[in-house]
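lol forgot to send this yesterday, sorry. struct tokens for the thing we talked abt
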């Protein structure tokens, strides 16, 4: 399986140079999601995260893997990744199967899930997320329609809450 990043011609995104390719080989696994944090590209796999930066090399890929920067947490579901106010949030997965929620700000990663939230994720992990800001607060909303819940993390106050929408069990 392919686990890397392929790049197009900068002047014509429809043209793909076969040399403009870099592999994410620090750990076995397929790339699931590609995000940006500061000037880095962040490649999520199921149980790990790898970082790349633009070094402007040509021919070949202008990207370079950051050898010393690899995280042993990955991505559970691609639809849980959200970016808001410079923060990157996601529902994570580890090699042992532990699910949690994390935030990355300026490449600094912090687990935001409490033990109670992790217990909910173990029995019924969220399927998708949304994020938004209102009244000076930024929110990360994780939803599991099958379990009927929406868990909301207030990024500003760093508190979790349960929300529902007008009599529905999830938001």
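and heres what i got for the seq, position by position
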């Amino acid at each position: 399986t392919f686990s890397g990043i392929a790049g197009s011609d900068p002047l014509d995104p429809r043209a793909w140079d076969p040399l403009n390719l870099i592999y994410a080989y620090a750990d076995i696994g397929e790339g699931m999601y590609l995000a940006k944090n500061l000037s880095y590209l962040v490649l999520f796999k199921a149980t790990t995260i790898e970082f790349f930066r633009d070094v402007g090399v040509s021919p070949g890929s202008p990207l370079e893997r950051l050898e010393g920067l690899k995280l042993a947490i990955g991505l559970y579901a691609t639809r849980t990744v959200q970016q808001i106010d410079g923060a990157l949030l996601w529902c994570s997965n580890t090699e042992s199967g532990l699910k949690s929620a994390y935030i990355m700000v300026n490449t600094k990663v912090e687990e935001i899930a409490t033990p109670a939230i992790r217990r909910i994720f173990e029995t019924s992990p969220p399927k998708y997320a949304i994020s938004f800001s209102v009244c000076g607060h930024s929110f990360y909303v994780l939803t599991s329609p099958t379990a009927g819940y929406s868990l909301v993390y207030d990024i500003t106050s760093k508190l979790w809450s349960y929300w529902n929408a007008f009599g529905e069990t999830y938001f």
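The two ends are 36 Å apart (CA to CA). anyway ping me if u want another try
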